[in-house]
């Protein structure tokens, strides 16, 4: 599949094509796919992209803002300055994962990480041609992967230009693909999940285990592993024809325990499986669209449970606020598979970026998934013996932090331009590491430099760090200089401290939000 499996490495001058360009040369499988299955797979992939695009323009907006300005339709501009229908990191990483499954015709974590690295470094599978909106946990894992690649190449005398294209199964078994640290339980593991259960649905035990493993390579906590296993199982059941009542059954896990190799879920995920998301009050009852994977899973299932159409559920997910694109993208994976592509809102479908590519790739997922045959039993729950030790050694910080924190754009205005126009000079944009500024913004140019947050100084603001035992650290403006402007061609960078994803909290973050007045800062607890 030369149109998909790009022969690209860091020493090449070849340009990486964007998804809409890849669709131009896409071939079709030689075998027809069952219509119902194809409808569900395409529904899941497009549903994910729609949820992502729907939430992108209000990403990081708090609930209070969305109560006054509810999202009612697909829009462009906003946080990242995207065009209507363009997606963010959630869908880009899912496309990387799908491309790996289709090209390798199997679950090859090393190849998945290679493609995530391509996205991170070169904008592979991005809707803008650039990597932006990347989570701190994912960024750290991909840096670690690249470091391990370099050491691996030196040890085994592998030419650098061949390092991304290793196919020797024996050699790959010597590479440790678990690139995350213990305690990392951000929603980045779940947001990209769909291709795995869609590909392996005919073999539920394999689909569920691979779902968990797909998250572990970048998010090392067992909560992330089990959230992906559980959600993967729901998507598998959807493709196998389950009705909504069965999917939302509080005993779904018990009735499908063989899919999980009878391995229990951690208590936080089991609580969700037993129906903790069924809250009529929604946000007021504690449902949150946060970066913590437990919150994200609960919020996506709440939206699916509380509404009867894809559109209504997607809007409900977005209007929870905060990590709006990811909550809605996670929702869209399951809801799209359940309702099917033909039931998605036509008024939104016409705007989906690279829609033909997503539809064609979905066809290949269906085809290669049907051709795939297991040559061994499902991998043991924790090939990964390290996971249980990680789970037992998690350090619980006094500050309850969001576990896939992203650097938020900082410039205090809203852009109506496409991201290609608003991101000059730098390829990687990311969410903020803290939860402080108001969410009213276009992207700033991120750098990889780290510095103590207390040293942050802009032309018009100085900050100090405010900490307490019960709340996450936040930045307080201590001085302001009026009329500071940044030219359209300036490279505005802000040193930052990413939240320490190595110290994940075993406790669900507090649900209260307060706005700190007169500082332009939001304190998240």
Descriptive account of the structure:
By secondary structure, the chain is mainly alpha-helical. The protein has one domain (24-391): ADP-ribosylation/Crystallin J1 (ADP-ribosylglycohydrolase fold), CATH 1.10.4080. The protein is built from 21 helices and six strands. The strands form three sheets. The chain has a two-stranded parallel ribbon. Strands 3-4 form a two-stranded antiparallel ribbon. Helix 4 packs across helix 5 (109-122) and helix 4 (89-104) runs parallel beside helix 19. The longest helix is centred in the N-terminal third of the chain and has 22 residues, at 35-56. The chain is globular and about 60 Å long. The termini are far apart. The model is unreliable at 7-11, 381-402 and 410-525 (pLDDT under 50).
What percentage of the residues does DSSP assign to strands (E)? 5-15%
Helix content: 40-55%
What is the number of helical segments per DSSP (H or I, 4+ residues)? Answer: 21
**Strand segment tally:** 6
Form type: globular
- Per CATH, the superfamily is ADP-ribosylation/Crystallin J1
Low-confidence stretches: 7-11, 381-402, 410-525
- What separation lies between the terminal Cα atoms? 47 Å
Largest sheet, described in full? 2 strands, parallel
């Amino acid at each position: 599949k030369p149109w998909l499996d790009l022969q690209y490495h860091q020493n090449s001058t070849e340009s990486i094509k964007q998804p809409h360009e890849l669709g131009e040369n896409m071939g079709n499988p030689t075998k027809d796919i069952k219509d119902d299955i194809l409808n569900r797979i395409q529904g899941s992939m497009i549903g994910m992209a729609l949820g992502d695009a729907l939430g992108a323009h209000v990403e990081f907006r708090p609930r209070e803002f969305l109560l006054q300005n509810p999202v009612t339709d697909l829009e462009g501009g906003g946080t990242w300055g995207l065009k209507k229908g363009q997606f963010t990191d959630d869908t880009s990483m899912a496309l990387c994962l799908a491309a790996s499954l289709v090209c390798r015709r199997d679950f090859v974590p090393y190849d998945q990480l290679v493609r995530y690295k391509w996205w991170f470094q070169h904008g592979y599978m991005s809707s803008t041609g650039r990597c932006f909106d990347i989570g701190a946990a994912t960024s750290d894992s991909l840096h670690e992967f690249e470091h391990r690649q370099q050491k691996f190449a030196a040890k085994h005398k592998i030419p650098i230009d061949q390092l991304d294209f290793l196919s020797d199964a024996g050699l790959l078994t010597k590479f440790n693909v678990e690139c995350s640290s213990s305690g990392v339980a951000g929603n980045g593991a779940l947001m990209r999940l769909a291709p795995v259960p869609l590909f392996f649905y005919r073999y539920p035990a394999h689909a569920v285990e691979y779902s968990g493993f797909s998250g572990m390579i970048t998010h090392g906590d067992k909560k992330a592993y089990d959230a992906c296993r559980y959600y993967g199982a729901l998507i598998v059941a959807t493709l196998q024809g389950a009705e909504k009542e069965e999917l939302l059954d509080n005993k779904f896990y018990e009735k499908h325990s063989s899919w999980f190799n009878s391995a229990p879920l951690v208590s936080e995920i089991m609580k969700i499986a037993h129906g903790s998301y069924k809250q009529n009050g929604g946000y007021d009852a504690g449902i949150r669209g946060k970066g913590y994977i437990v919150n994200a899973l609960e919020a996506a299932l709440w939206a699916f449970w509380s509404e009867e159409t894809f559109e209504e559920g997607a809007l409900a997910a977005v209007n929870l606020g905060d990590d709006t694109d990811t909550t809605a993208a996670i929702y869209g994976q399951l809801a799209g598979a359940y309702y099917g592509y033909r039931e998605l809102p036509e008024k939104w479908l016409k705007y989906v970026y690279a829609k033909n590519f997503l539809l064609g790739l979905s066809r290949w997922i269906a085809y290669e998934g049907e051709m795939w045959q297991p040559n061994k039993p499902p991998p043991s729950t924790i090939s990964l013996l390290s996971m249980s030790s990680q789970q037992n050694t998690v350090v619980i910080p006094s500050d309850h932090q969001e576990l896939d924190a992203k650097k938020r754009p900082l410039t205090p205005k809203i852009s109506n331009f496409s991201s290609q126009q608003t991101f000059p000079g730098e390829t990687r944009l990311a969410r903020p590491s803290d939860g402080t500024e108001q969410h009213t913004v276009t992207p700033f140019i991120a750098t990889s430099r780290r510095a103590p947050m207390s040293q942050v100084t802009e032309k018009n603001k100085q900050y100090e760090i405010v900490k307490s035992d019960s709340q996450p650290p936040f930045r307080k403006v201590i001085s302001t200089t009026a009329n500071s402007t940044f030219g359209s061609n300036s490279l505005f960078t802000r040193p930052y401290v990413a939240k320490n994803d190595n110290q994940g909290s075993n406790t669900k973050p507090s649900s209260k939000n307060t706005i700190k007045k007169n500082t332009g800062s939001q304190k998240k607890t």
